Protein backbone atom coordinates (compact mmCIF):
# COMPACT_ATOMS: atom_id res chain seq x y z
CA UNK A 1 0.00 0.00 0.00
CA UNK A 2 2.72 2.40 1.10
CA UNK A 3 4.71 1.47 -1.97
CA UNK A 4 1.72 2.15 -4.19
CA UNK A 5 1.16 5.53 -2.59
CA UNK A 6 4.77 6.51 -3.03
CA UNK A 7 4.63 5.59 -6.70
CA UNK A 8 1.39 7.48 -7.13
CA UNK A 9 2.81 10.62 -5.47
CA UNK A 10 5.96 10.42 -7.52
CA UNK A 11 3.83 10.27 -10.65
CA UNK A 12 1.67 13.17 -9.55
CA UNK A 13 4.73 15.28 -8.78
CA UNK A 14 6.34 14.36 -12.07
CA UNK A 15 3.13 15.21 -13.88
CA UNK A 16 2.86 18.51 -12.03
CA UNK A 17 6.38 19.43 -13.05
CA UNK A 18 6.37 18.11 -16.59
CA UNK A 19 2.92 18.60 -18.01
CA UNK A 20 2.50 22.38 -17.89
CA UNK A 21 5.74 22.60 -19.78
CA UNK A 22 4.37 20.32 -22.50
CA UNK A 23 0.81 21.54 -22.72
CA UNK A 24 1.31 25.18 -21.92
CA UNK A 25 -1.73 26.99 -20.59
CA UNK A 26 -4.72 25.14 -21.99
CA UNK A 27 -8.31 24.29 -21.30
CA UNK A 28 -7.01 20.95 -20.07
CA UNK A 29 -5.43 22.53 -17.00
CA UNK A 30 -8.61 22.08 -14.99
CA UNK A 31 -8.08 18.33 -15.12
CA UNK A 32 -4.80 18.63 -13.25
CA UNK A 33 -4.77 16.56 -10.06
CA UNK A 34 -8.11 14.95 -10.91
CA UNK A 35 -8.59 11.21 -10.95
CA UNK A 36 -11.44 8.79 -11.37
CA UNK A 37 -13.79 7.46 -14.00
CA UNK A 38 -16.23 9.33 -16.20
CA UNK A 39 -18.92 7.27 -17.91
CA UNK A 40 -20.57 8.62 -21.04
CA UNK A 41 -23.25 7.02 -23.21
CA UNK A 42 -26.07 7.81 -25.61
CA UNK A 43 -26.20 9.65 -28.95
CA UNK A 44 -24.05 8.08 -31.63
CA UNK A 45 -23.55 11.37 -33.53
CA UNK A 46 -21.60 12.68 -30.53
CA UNK A 47 -19.12 9.84 -30.45
CA UNK A 48 -16.31 11.25 -32.65
CA UNK A 49 -16.14 14.44 -30.56
CA UNK A 50 -16.40 12.51 -27.28
CA UNK A 51 -13.58 10.22 -28.34
CA UNK A 52 -11.24 13.05 -29.33
CA UNK A 53 -11.95 15.05 -26.15
CA UNK A 54 -11.50 11.93 -23.99
CA UNK A 55 -8.26 11.06 -25.75
CA UNK A 56 -6.80 14.51 -25.07
CA UNK A 57 -7.93 14.53 -21.45
CA UNK A 58 -6.65 11.04 -20.72
CA UNK A 59 -3.33 11.81 -22.38
CA UNK A 60 -3.02 14.97 -20.26
CA UNK A 61 -3.93 13.15 -17.06
CA UNK A 62 -3.69 9.35 -17.16
CA UNK A 63 -5.37 9.08 -13.75
CA UNK A 64 -8.66 9.91 -15.42
CA UNK A 65 -10.42 7.20 -17.36
CA UNK A 66 -13.33 8.01 -19.64
CA UNK A 67 -15.60 5.36 -21.13
CA UNK A 68 -17.81 6.11 -24.13
CA UNK A 69 -20.74 4.02 -25.26
CA UNK A 70 -23.46 4.48 -27.90
CA UNK A 71 -27.03 3.26 -27.56
CA UNK A 72 -28.85 6.24 -29.00
CA UNK A 73 -30.28 9.39 -27.47
CA UNK A 74 -33.11 7.64 -25.66
CA UNK A 75 -30.65 5.28 -24.02
CA UNK A 76 -28.37 8.17 -23.07
CA UNK A 77 -31.16 10.10 -21.35
CA UNK A 78 -32.44 7.00 -19.60
CA UNK A 79 -29.03 5.86 -18.41
CA UNK A 80 -27.99 9.24 -17.05
CA UNK A 81 -31.39 9.59 -15.40
CA UNK A 82 -31.07 6.22 -13.70
CA UNK A 83 -27.55 7.07 -12.56
CA UNK A 84 -25.88 4.41 -14.71
CA UNK A 85 -23.63 6.96 -16.43
CA UNK A 86 -22.35 10.44 -15.57
CA UNK A 87 -23.15 12.08 -18.89
CA UNK A 88 -25.97 11.00 -21.20
CA UNK A 89 -25.74 12.40 -24.74
CA UNK A 90 -28.74 13.12 -26.89
CA UNK A 91 -29.08 14.31 -30.46
CA UNK A 92 -32.44 15.86 -29.60
CA UNK A 93 -33.59 18.09 -26.81
CA UNK A 94 -34.80 15.87 -23.94
CA UNK A 95 -38.61 15.88 -23.70
CA UNK A 96 -40.18 18.00 -20.91
CA UNK A 97 -41.36 14.86 -19.08
CA UNK A 98 -37.85 13.40 -19.26
CA UNK A 99 -36.32 16.59 -17.89
CA UNK A 100 -38.85 16.68 -15.08
CA UNK A 101 -38.68 13.00 -14.21
CA UNK A 102 -34.90 12.81 -13.99
CA UNK A 103 -34.08 16.43 -13.10
CA UNK A 104 -31.83 16.69 -16.13
CA UNK A 105 -29.62 19.63 -16.84
CA UNK A 106 -28.84 20.07 -20.52
CA UNK A 107 -25.70 21.36 -22.16
CA UNK A 108 -25.86 22.08 -25.87
CA UNK A 109 -22.37 22.25 -27.30
CA UNK A 110 -22.89 21.98 -31.07
CA UNK A 111 -25.41 22.09 -33.86
CA UNK A 112 -25.74 19.29 -36.36
CA UNK A 113 -27.81 18.62 -39.45
CA UNK A 114 -29.52 15.37 -40.37
CA UNK A 115 -29.18 14.64 -44.08
CA UNK A 116 -30.86 12.11 -46.34
CA UNK A 117 -28.10 10.12 -48.00
CA UNK A 118 -27.78 7.64 -50.85
CA UNK A 119 -24.98 5.54 -52.27
CA UNK A 120 -22.45 7.63 -54.25
CA UNK A 121 -23.25 5.56 -57.38
CA UNK A 122 -26.88 6.61 -57.28
CA UNK A 123 -27.72 9.23 -59.96
CA UNK A 124 -30.54 10.64 -57.81
CA UNK A 125 -29.09 13.57 -55.87
CA UNK A 126 -32.09 15.79 -55.20
CA UNK A 127 -35.61 15.20 -53.91
CA UNK A 128 -38.51 17.38 -52.89
CA UNK A 129 -39.93 17.06 -49.39
CA UNK A 130 -43.03 15.43 -50.85
CA UNK A 131 -40.96 12.87 -52.73
CA UNK A 132 -38.92 12.06 -49.64
CA UNK A 133 -42.10 11.61 -47.61
CA UNK A 134 -43.59 9.34 -50.26
CA UNK A 135 -40.39 7.29 -50.41
CA UNK A 136 -40.33 6.77 -46.65
CA UNK A 137 -44.05 6.03 -46.49
CA UNK A 138 -43.48 3.27 -49.04
CA UNK A 139 -45.58 4.95 -51.75
CA UNK A 140 -42.68 5.42 -54.17
CA UNK A 141 -40.88 2.11 -54.32
CA UNK A 142 -38.66 2.30 -57.40
CA UNK A 143 -35.69 4.53 -58.16
CA UNK A 144 -37.09 4.77 -61.70
CA UNK A 145 -39.84 7.10 -60.45
CA UNK A 146 -37.16 9.46 -59.15
CA UNK A 147 -34.98 9.44 -62.26
CA UNK A 148 -32.77 6.53 -61.29
CA UNK A 149 -32.39 2.87 -62.22
CA UNK A 150 -35.30 0.46 -62.43
CA UNK A 151 -34.58 -1.04 -59.02
CA UNK A 152 -36.45 -1.16 -55.75
CA UNK A 153 -35.64 1.47 -53.15
CA UNK A 154 -34.08 -0.03 -50.03
CA UNK A 155 -35.21 2.06 -47.08
CA UNK A 156 -33.06 2.38 -43.99
CA UNK A 157 -34.12 3.85 -40.69
CA UNK A 158 -33.03 3.93 -37.06
CA UNK A 159 -34.57 2.47 -33.91
CA UNK A 160 -36.88 4.39 -31.61
CA UNK A 161 -34.05 5.45 -29.30
CA UNK A 162 -32.35 7.49 -32.03
CA UNK A 163 -32.34 11.28 -31.75
CA UNK A 164 -31.28 11.44 -35.39
CA UNK A 165 -34.44 9.54 -36.28
CA UNK A 166 -36.68 11.72 -34.19
CA UNK A 167 -35.30 14.92 -35.75
CA UNK A 168 -35.47 13.52 -39.29
CA UNK A 169 -39.00 12.24 -38.71
CA UNK A 170 -40.19 15.57 -37.34
CA UNK A 171 -38.40 18.02 -39.62
CA UNK A 172 -37.81 16.15 -42.89
CA UNK A 173 -40.79 13.78 -42.97
CA UNK A 174 -43.23 16.10 -41.19
CA UNK A 175 -44.06 13.23 -38.81
CA UNK A 176 -45.12 11.15 -41.82
CA UNK A 177 -45.21 7.36 -41.82
CA UNK A 178 -42.12 5.23 -42.11
CA UNK A 179 -42.85 2.02 -44.01
CA UNK A 180 -42.71 -1.22 -42.08
CA UNK A 181 -40.51 -2.62 -44.81
CA UNK A 182 -37.64 -0.31 -43.85
CA UNK A 183 -34.43 -1.89 -42.61
CA UNK A 184 -33.33 -0.87 -39.13
CA UNK A 185 -29.75 -0.06 -38.13
CA UNK A 186 -28.55 0.86 -34.67
CA UNK A 187 -26.14 3.79 -35.04
CA UNK A 188 -24.97 6.62 -37.34
CA UNK A 189 -21.86 4.56 -38.08
CA UNK A 190 -23.91 1.48 -39.00
CA UNK A 191 -26.13 3.66 -41.21
CA UNK A 192 -23.12 5.04 -43.05
CA UNK A 193 -21.67 1.61 -43.78
CA UNK A 194 -25.08 0.22 -44.79
CA UNK A 195 -25.70 3.04 -47.31
CA UNK A 196 -22.09 2.94 -48.53
CA UNK A 197 -22.47 -0.78 -49.28
CA UNK A 198 -25.92 -0.76 -50.84
CA UNK A 199 -26.23 0.97 -54.25
CA UNK A 200 -30.05 1.13 -54.00
CA UNK A 201 -30.29 2.45 -50.46
CA UNK A 202 -31.62 5.63 -48.94
CA UNK A 203 -31.09 6.57 -45.31
CA UNK A 204 -30.25 9.54 -43.14
CA UNK A 205 -27.23 10.45 -41.03
CA UNK A 206 -25.72 13.21 -38.98
CA UNK A 207 -24.03 15.78 -41.23
CA UNK A 208 -20.92 15.36 -39.07
CA UNK A 209 -20.71 11.74 -40.23
CA UNK A 210 -20.89 12.46 -43.96
CA UNK A 211 -17.89 11.57 -46.10
CA UNK A 212 -17.16 10.20 -49.58
CA UNK A 213 -18.73 6.81 -48.85
CA UNK A 214 -22.22 8.31 -48.98
CA UNK A 215 -23.80 11.07 -51.09
CA UNK A 216 -26.09 13.73 -49.57
CA UNK A 217 -29.46 14.29 -51.21
CA UNK A 218 -30.53 17.91 -51.71
CA UNK A 219 -33.89 18.50 -50.10
CA UNK A 220 -36.07 21.07 -51.88
CA UNK A 221 -32.92 22.21 -53.72
CA UNK A 222 -30.88 22.79 -50.57
CA UNK A 223 -27.86 20.55 -50.32
CA UNK A 224 -27.24 19.50 -46.74
CA UNK A 225 -23.73 20.50 -45.69
CA UNK A 226 -21.91 22.14 -42.85
CA UNK A 227 -22.34 25.50 -44.61
CA UNK A 228 -26.06 25.24 -45.34
CA UNK A 229 -26.81 24.05 -41.79
CA UNK A 230 -24.79 26.95 -40.42
CA UNK A 231 -26.52 29.53 -42.59
CA UNK A 232 -29.90 28.11 -41.65
CA UNK A 233 -30.86 27.33 -45.27
CA UNK A 234 -30.98 23.62 -44.50
CA UNK A 235 -33.71 23.20 -41.93
CA UNK A 236 -33.32 19.64 -40.71
CA UNK A 237 -30.98 20.49 -37.85
CA UNK A 238 -30.73 19.88 -34.15
CA UNK A 239 -28.57 20.62 -31.14
CA UNK A 240 -26.17 18.07 -29.74
CA UNK A 241 -26.70 17.83 -26.01
CA UNK A 242 -24.74 16.37 -23.14
CA UNK A 243 -27.06 15.86 -20.18
CA UNK A 244 -26.38 15.34 -16.51
CA UNK A 245 -28.67 14.41 -13.64
CA UNK A 246 -28.99 17.65 -11.69
CA UNK A 247 -26.25 20.23 -12.01
CA UNK A 248 -23.06 18.77 -13.50
CA UNK A 249 -20.51 18.02 -10.80
CA UNK A 250 -16.88 16.98 -10.60
CA UNK A 251 -15.38 15.40 -13.68
CA UNK A 252 -18.64 15.64 -15.62
CA UNK A 253 -18.75 19.42 -15.04
CA UNK A 254 -15.14 19.78 -16.13
CA UNK A 255 -15.71 17.60 -19.19
CA UNK A 256 -18.66 19.72 -20.28
CA UNK A 257 -16.74 22.92 -19.60
CA UNK A 258 -13.97 21.52 -21.78
CA UNK A 259 -16.46 20.89 -24.62
CA UNK A 260 -17.57 24.52 -24.33
CA UNK A 261 -14.00 25.87 -24.23
CA UNK A 262 -12.39 27.17 -27.44
CA UNK A 263 -10.39 23.94 -27.66
CA UNK A 264 -13.48 21.75 -27.23
CA UNK A 265 -15.42 23.80 -29.75
CA UNK A 266 -12.55 23.44 -32.19
CA UNK A 267 -12.79 19.65 -31.87
CA UNK A 268 -16.52 19.86 -32.62
CA UNK A 269 -15.80 21.95 -35.73
CA UNK A 270 -13.07 19.55 -36.89
CA UNK A 271 -15.48 16.62 -36.59
CA UNK A 272 -18.01 18.35 -38.84
CA UNK A 273 -20.35 20.06 -36.40
CA UNK A 274 -21.17 23.72 -35.85
CA UNK A 275 -19.81 25.08 -32.57
CA UNK A 276 -22.21 27.06 -30.40
CA UNK A 277 -19.68 29.53 -28.96
CA UNK B 1 -22.97 -43.42 3.18
CA UNK B 2 -20.23 -41.46 4.92
CA UNK B 3 -20.45 -37.78 5.70
CA UNK B 4 -18.23 -36.73 2.78
CA UNK B 5 -20.55 -38.45 0.36
CA UNK B 6 -23.55 -36.80 1.90
CA UNK B 7 -21.95 -33.35 1.78
CA UNK B 8 -21.06 -33.79 -1.87
CA UNK B 9 -24.55 -34.97 -2.62
CA UNK B 10 -26.06 -31.94 -0.94
CA UNK B 11 -23.65 -29.65 -2.74
CA UNK B 12 -24.51 -31.04 -6.17
CA UNK B 13 -28.21 -31.06 -5.38
CA UNK B 14 -28.15 -27.41 -4.38
CA UNK B 15 -26.14 -26.54 -7.51
CA UNK B 16 -28.76 -28.26 -9.65
CA UNK B 17 -31.58 -26.59 -7.75
CA UNK B 18 -30.00 -23.15 -8.18
CA UNK B 19 -29.73 -23.73 -11.92
CA UNK B 20 -33.33 -24.83 -12.26
CA UNK B 21 -34.58 -22.01 -10.02
CA UNK B 22 -32.64 -19.38 -11.94
CA UNK B 23 -34.33 -20.51 -15.15
CA UNK B 24 -37.77 -20.45 -13.56
CA UNK B 25 -37.11 -17.13 -11.86
CA UNK B 26 -36.29 -15.51 -15.19
CA UNK B 27 -39.62 -16.70 -16.57
CA UNK B 28 -41.42 -15.54 -13.41
CA UNK B 29 -39.73 -12.16 -13.59
CA UNK B 30 -40.83 -11.62 -17.18
CA UNK B 31 -44.39 -12.73 -16.44
CA UNK B 32 -44.63 -10.37 -13.45
CA UNK B 33 -43.33 -7.44 -15.47
CA UNK B 34 -45.56 -8.32 -18.40
CA UNK B 35 -48.62 -8.74 -16.17
CA UNK B 36 -50.03 -5.21 -16.54
CA UNK B 37 -50.19 -5.75 -20.29
CA UNK B 38 -51.58 -9.27 -20.00
CA UNK B 39 -54.32 -7.97 -17.68
CA UNK B 40 -55.16 -4.98 -19.85
CA UNK B 41 -56.52 -7.29 -22.53
CA UNK B 42 -53.97 -6.13 -25.10
CA UNK B 43 -52.26 -9.50 -25.18
CA UNK B 44 -54.13 -10.77 -28.21
CA UNK B 45 -53.36 -7.59 -30.17
CA UNK B 46 -49.73 -7.85 -29.19
CA UNK B 47 -49.46 -11.46 -30.26
CA UNK B 48 -51.25 -11.06 -33.57
CA UNK B 49 -51.11 -7.40 -34.62
CA UNK B 50 -48.64 -5.28 -36.58
CA UNK B 51 -45.88 -3.16 -34.98
CA UNK B 52 -46.35 0.57 -35.46
CA UNK B 53 -45.71 2.49 -32.24
CA UNK B 54 -46.59 5.81 -33.92
CA UNK B 55 -50.12 4.46 -34.37
CA UNK B 56 -50.34 2.78 -30.98
CA UNK B 57 -49.86 -0.74 -32.37
CA UNK B 58 -47.37 -2.99 -30.64
CA UNK B 59 -47.83 -6.38 -32.28
CA UNK B 60 -44.93 -8.80 -32.32
CA UNK B 61 -46.31 -11.43 -34.69
CA UNK B 62 -43.89 -10.40 -37.45
CA UNK B 63 -40.96 -10.80 -35.07
CA UNK B 64 -42.08 -14.25 -33.90
CA UNK B 65 -42.46 -15.31 -37.53
CA UNK B 66 -39.06 -13.78 -38.31
CA UNK B 67 -37.44 -15.76 -35.51
CA UNK B 68 -38.97 -19.04 -36.70
CA UNK B 69 -38.07 -18.38 -40.36
CA UNK B 70 -34.48 -17.40 -39.71
CA UNK B 71 -33.74 -20.10 -37.13
CA UNK B 72 -35.67 -22.75 -39.10
CA UNK B 73 -33.93 -21.97 -42.39
CA UNK B 74 -30.52 -21.96 -40.72
CA UNK B 75 -31.28 -25.39 -39.28
CA UNK B 76 -32.37 -26.69 -42.67
CA UNK B 77 -29.08 -25.49 -44.14
CA UNK B 78 -26.86 -26.56 -41.25
CA UNK B 79 -28.33 -30.01 -40.54
CA UNK B 80 -27.28 -31.87 -43.71
CA UNK B 81 -23.91 -30.12 -43.75
CA UNK B 82 -23.23 -31.04 -40.14
CA UNK B 83 -24.40 -34.60 -40.55
CA UNK B 84 -22.19 -35.02 -43.59
CA UNK B 85 -19.21 -33.49 -41.86
CA UNK B 86 -19.56 -35.67 -38.78
CA UNK B 87 -19.97 -38.83 -40.87
CA UNK B 88 -16.85 -37.76 -42.73
CA UNK B 89 -14.94 -37.30 -39.48
CA UNK B 90 -16.13 -40.48 -37.76
CA UNK B 91 -17.04 -42.99 -40.48
CA UNK B 92 -14.88 -42.17 -43.48
CA UNK B 93 -12.08 -41.31 -41.05
CA UNK B 94 -9.42 -40.04 -43.42
CA UNK B 95 -6.39 -39.56 -41.18
CA UNK B 96 -5.15 -36.07 -41.93
CA UNK B 97 -8.22 -34.39 -43.37
CA UNK B 98 -10.54 -35.75 -40.67
CA UNK B 99 -8.39 -34.50 -37.81
CA UNK B 100 -7.90 -31.17 -39.55
CA UNK B 101 -11.66 -30.74 -39.98
CA UNK B 102 -12.29 -31.63 -36.36
CA UNK B 103 -9.66 -29.16 -35.23
CA UNK B 104 -11.19 -26.44 -37.43
CA UNK B 105 -14.66 -27.11 -36.08
CA UNK B 106 -13.42 -26.82 -32.51
CA UNK B 107 -11.74 -23.56 -33.42
CA UNK B 108 -14.98 -22.27 -34.95
CA UNK B 109 -16.90 -22.69 -31.70
CA UNK B 110 -14.69 -20.00 -30.17
CA UNK B 111 -15.38 -17.29 -32.77
CA UNK B 112 -17.59 -14.52 -31.32
CA UNK B 113 -20.84 -13.98 -33.24
CA UNK B 114 -20.05 -10.33 -33.90
CA UNK B 115 -17.20 -11.49 -36.15
CA UNK B 116 -19.65 -13.56 -38.19
CA UNK B 117 -21.86 -10.48 -38.34
CA UNK B 118 -19.05 -8.35 -39.74
CA UNK B 119 -18.00 -10.92 -42.30
CA UNK B 120 -21.65 -11.22 -43.24
CA UNK B 121 -22.09 -7.50 -43.83
CA UNK B 122 -19.06 -7.05 -46.01
CA UNK B 123 -19.00 -10.42 -47.80
CA UNK B 124 -22.35 -12.15 -47.76
CA UNK B 125 -24.73 -9.18 -48.01
CA UNK B 126 -23.34 -7.84 -51.33
CA UNK B 127 -23.24 -11.41 -52.71
CA UNK B 128 -26.85 -12.12 -51.82
CA UNK B 129 -27.89 -8.71 -53.18
CA UNK B 130 -26.23 -9.25 -56.54
CA UNK B 131 -27.36 -12.88 -56.91
CA UNK B 132 -30.96 -12.18 -56.00
CA UNK B 133 -31.11 -8.99 -58.06
CA UNK B 134 -33.55 -7.37 -55.64
CA UNK B 135 -33.65 -5.91 -52.17
CA UNK B 136 -30.79 -4.77 -50.00
CA UNK B 137 -29.19 -8.15 -49.27
CA UNK B 138 -30.14 -7.72 -45.62
CA UNK B 139 -32.66 -10.53 -45.47
CA UNK B 140 -33.75 -13.85 -43.99
CA UNK B 141 -31.52 -15.83 -46.34
CA UNK B 142 -28.37 -13.88 -45.45
CA UNK B 143 -29.00 -14.12 -41.71
CA UNK B 144 -29.87 -17.82 -41.97
CA UNK B 145 -26.75 -18.62 -43.99
CA UNK B 146 -24.52 -16.92 -41.43
CA UNK B 147 -26.42 -18.47 -38.52
CA UNK B 148 -25.94 -21.87 -40.17
CA UNK B 149 -22.19 -21.29 -40.07
CA UNK B 150 -22.53 -20.35 -36.41
CA UNK B 151 -24.48 -23.44 -35.35
CA UNK B 152 -22.67 -25.98 -37.54
CA UNK B 153 -19.79 -26.55 -35.07
CA UNK B 154 -22.20 -27.28 -32.21
CA UNK B 155 -24.05 -29.81 -34.33
CA UNK B 156 -20.92 -31.40 -35.79
CA UNK B 157 -19.33 -31.89 -32.36
CA UNK B 158 -22.53 -33.38 -30.92
CA UNK B 159 -23.16 -35.60 -33.92
CA UNK B 160 -19.62 -36.93 -34.15
CA UNK B 161 -19.46 -37.63 -30.43
CA UNK B 162 -22.61 -39.73 -30.57
CA UNK B 163 -21.52 -41.45 -33.75
CA UNK B 164 -18.17 -42.26 -32.12
CA UNK B 165 -20.03 -43.93 -29.24
CA UNK B 166 -21.63 -46.54 -31.53
CA UNK B 167 -19.86 -49.77 -30.49
CA UNK B 168 -17.09 -50.71 -32.92
CA UNK B 169 -18.10 -54.36 -32.75
CA UNK B 170 -21.48 -53.58 -34.32
CA UNK B 171 -19.80 -51.86 -37.22
CA UNK B 172 -17.36 -54.75 -37.56
CA UNK B 173 -20.33 -57.10 -37.63
CA UNK B 174 -21.85 -55.19 -40.56
CA UNK B 175 -18.54 -55.37 -42.38
CA UNK B 176 -18.30 -59.09 -41.64
CA UNK B 177 -21.75 -59.65 -43.16
CA UNK B 178 -20.73 -57.77 -46.27
CA UNK B 179 -22.89 -54.73 -45.59
CA UNK B 180 -22.32 -51.59 -47.66
CA UNK B 181 -21.24 -48.36 -45.97
CA UNK B 182 -24.70 -46.99 -46.75
CA UNK B 183 -26.34 -49.89 -44.89
CA UNK B 184 -23.96 -49.35 -42.02
CA UNK B 185 -24.98 -45.70 -41.69
CA UNK B 186 -28.67 -46.26 -42.34
CA UNK B 187 -29.27 -49.29 -40.08
CA UNK B 188 -26.66 -49.09 -37.34
CA UNK B 189 -25.22 -45.63 -36.93
CA UNK B 190 -28.36 -43.52 -37.32
CA UNK B 191 -30.57 -45.50 -34.92
CA UNK B 192 -27.79 -45.80 -32.34
CA UNK B 193 -26.67 -42.20 -32.56
CA UNK B 194 -30.17 -40.74 -32.87
CA UNK B 195 -30.50 -39.32 -29.33
CA UNK B 196 -27.22 -37.45 -29.75
CA UNK B 197 -28.27 -36.16 -33.15
CA UNK B 198 -31.55 -34.89 -31.68
CA UNK B 199 -29.88 -33.19 -28.71
CA UNK B 200 -27.32 -31.55 -30.97
CA UNK B 201 -30.07 -30.25 -33.23
CA UNK B 202 -32.12 -28.94 -30.30
CA UNK B 203 -29.12 -27.18 -28.85
CA UNK B 204 -28.34 -25.66 -32.24
CA UNK B 205 -31.95 -24.54 -32.68
CA UNK B 206 -31.83 -22.91 -29.26
CA UNK B 207 -28.65 -21.14 -30.21
CA UNK B 208 -30.11 -20.02 -33.54
CA UNK B 209 -33.33 -18.68 -31.99
CA UNK B 210 -31.43 -17.05 -29.15
CA UNK B 211 -28.71 -15.38 -31.20
CA UNK B 212 -29.16 -11.63 -31.40
CA UNK B 213 -26.23 -10.08 -33.20
CA UNK B 214 -26.32 -11.96 -36.48
CA UNK B 215 -30.03 -11.36 -37.00
CA UNK B 216 -29.64 -7.74 -35.88
CA UNK B 217 -26.75 -7.08 -38.23
CA UNK B 218 -27.86 -9.12 -41.25
CA UNK B 219 -31.62 -9.64 -41.07
CA UNK B 220 -32.57 -6.05 -41.92
CA UNK B 221 -34.98 -5.75 -38.96
CA UNK B 222 -38.07 -4.71 -40.94
CA UNK B 223 -41.29 -4.98 -38.97
CA UNK B 224 -43.61 -6.35 -41.65
CA UNK B 225 -44.46 -10.01 -42.10
CA UNK B 226 -41.81 -11.49 -44.42
CA UNK B 227 -43.14 -12.99 -47.64
CA UNK B 228 -39.99 -14.55 -49.05
CA UNK B 229 -36.52 -15.49 -47.87
CA UNK B 230 -35.24 -12.38 -49.62
CA UNK B 231 -37.36 -10.11 -47.42
CA UNK B 232 -35.93 -8.14 -44.56
CA UNK B 233 -37.15 -9.52 -41.22
CA UNK B 234 -36.74 -8.93 -37.52
CA UNK B 235 -36.31 -11.63 -34.89
CA UNK B 236 -37.65 -11.42 -31.34
CA UNK B 237 -34.11 -11.09 -30.01
CA UNK B 238 -33.20 -8.25 -32.38
CA UNK B 239 -36.53 -6.63 -31.54
CA UNK B 240 -35.73 -6.66 -27.83
CA UNK B 241 -32.28 -5.22 -28.53
CA UNK B 242 -33.74 -2.42 -30.64
CA UNK B 243 -36.59 -1.48 -28.33
CA UNK B 244 -34.80 -1.83 -24.98
CA UNK B 245 -33.40 1.68 -25.33
CA UNK B 246 -36.91 3.16 -25.49
CA UNK B 247 -38.42 5.01 -22.56
CA UNK B 248 -38.99 2.71 -19.50
CA UNK B 249 -42.53 3.93 -19.05
CA UNK B 250 -43.58 3.58 -22.65
CA UNK B 251 -45.86 0.80 -23.85
CA UNK B 252 -43.20 -0.13 -26.37
CA UNK B 253 -40.83 -0.99 -23.58
CA UNK B 254 -43.40 -3.04 -21.70
CA UNK B 255 -44.19 -5.18 -24.72
CA UNK B 256 -40.64 -6.51 -24.84
CA UNK B 257 -41.41 -8.64 -21.80
CA UNK B 258 -44.08 -10.35 -23.90
CA UNK B 259 -41.39 -10.87 -26.56
CA UNK B 260 -39.18 -12.41 -23.88
CA UNK B 261 -41.89 -14.78 -22.70
CA UNK B 262 -42.66 -15.80 -26.27
CA UNK B 263 -38.98 -16.51 -26.89
CA UNK B 264 -38.83 -18.59 -23.72
CA UNK B 265 -41.92 -20.57 -24.67
CA UNK B 266 -40.65 -21.15 -28.21
CA UNK B 267 -37.34 -22.63 -27.07
CA UNK B 268 -39.12 -24.60 -24.36
CA UNK B 269 -41.51 -26.13 -26.88
CA UNK B 270 -38.59 -26.94 -29.16
CA UNK B 271 -36.90 -28.88 -26.39
CA UNK B 272 -40.11 -30.73 -25.44
CA UNK B 273 -40.74 -31.69 -29.05
CA UNK B 274 -37.20 -32.99 -29.36
CA UNK B 275 -37.49 -35.04 -26.19
CA UNK B 276 -40.67 -36.58 -27.55
CA UNK B 277 -38.97 -37.39 -30.84
CA UNK B 278 -36.10 -38.97 -28.96
CA UNK B 279 -38.40 -41.33 -27.04
CA UNK B 280 -40.55 -42.36 -29.95
CA UNK B 281 -37.70 -43.71 -31.98
Please outline what is shown here.
By secondary structure, chain A is of the alpha/beta class. Chain A has helices at residues 2-23, 47-60, 73-81, 96-102, 129-137, 163-171, 188-197, 226-231, 250-260, 262-270, and strands spanning 36-42, 64-71, 87-90, 104-118, 126-127, 154-158, 183-185, 201-206, 215-216, 218-219, 237-245, 274-275. Chain A has two domains: 34-111 and 238-275, D-Maltodextrin-Binding Protein, domain 2, CATH 3.40.190; 113-237, 3-Layer(aba) Sandwich (D-Maltodextrin-Binding Protein, domain 2).
Give an account of the 3D structure:
The complex is a heterodimer of chains A (277) and B (281). By secondary structure, chain A is an alpha/beta fold. Chain A folds into two domains: 34-111 and 238-275, D-Maltodextrin-Binding Protein, domain 2 (3-Layer(aba) Sandwich), CATH 3.40.190; 113-237, D-Maltodextrin-Binding Protein, domain 2 (3-Layer(aba) Sandwich), CATH 3.40.190. Helices cover 38% and strands 23% of the residues of chain A. Chain A is built from ten helices and twelve strands. Chain A has helices at residues 2-23, 47-60, 73-81, 96-102, 129-137, 163-171, 188-197, 226-231, 250-260, 262-270; strands at 36-42, 64-71, 87-90, 104-118, 126-127, 154-158, 183-185, 201-206, 215-216, 218-219, 237-245, 274-275. In chain A, the strands form two sheets. In chain A, strands 1, 2, 3, 4, 6, 7, 8, 9, 11 and 12 form a ten-stranded mixed sheet that branches. Chain A has a two-stranded parallel ribbon with strand order 5-10. In chain A, helix 9 (250-260) packs across helix 10 (262-270). The longest helix of chain A has 22 residues, at 2-23. Chain A is elongated and about 70 Å long. The mean pLDDT of chain A is 89. Chain B is mainly alpha-helical and 281 residues long. Chain B has a single domain (40-280), classed as MetI-like fold (Orthogonal Bundle). Chain B has helices at 3-39, 43-48, 61-92, 95-108, 113-132, 140-164, 168-176, 181-210, 213-218, 236-243, 251-280, and strands at 51-52, 57-58. Chain B has a two-stranded antiparallel ribbon. In chain B, helix 3 runs antiparallel to helix 4 and helix 3 (61-92) packs antiparallel against helix 8 (181-210). Chain B is globular and about 70 Å long. The mean pLDDT of chain B is 88. Classes of the chains: A alpha/beta (277), B mainly alpha (281). At the A-B interface, helix 3, strand 7 and helix 7 of A face strand 1, helix 5 and helix 10 of B.
Amino acid sequence: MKMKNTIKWTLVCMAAVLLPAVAGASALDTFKGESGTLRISGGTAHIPVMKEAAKRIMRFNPDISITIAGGGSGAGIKQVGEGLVDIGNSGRKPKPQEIEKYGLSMHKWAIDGVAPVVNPDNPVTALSSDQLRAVYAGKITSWKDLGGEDRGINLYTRDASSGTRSVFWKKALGKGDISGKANFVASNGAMKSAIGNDPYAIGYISVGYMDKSVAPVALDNVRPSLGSVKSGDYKVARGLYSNTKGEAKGLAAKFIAYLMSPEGQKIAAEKGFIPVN
Amino acid sequence: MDSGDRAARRLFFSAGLTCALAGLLVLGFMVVLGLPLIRSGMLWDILTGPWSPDHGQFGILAMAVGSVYIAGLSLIIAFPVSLGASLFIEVVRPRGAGRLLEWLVRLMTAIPTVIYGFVGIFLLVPLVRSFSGQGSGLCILTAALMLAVLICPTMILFFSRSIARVPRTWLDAVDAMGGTPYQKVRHIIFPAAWPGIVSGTVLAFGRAVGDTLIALMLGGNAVTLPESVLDSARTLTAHIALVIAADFDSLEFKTIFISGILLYVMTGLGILAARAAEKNL
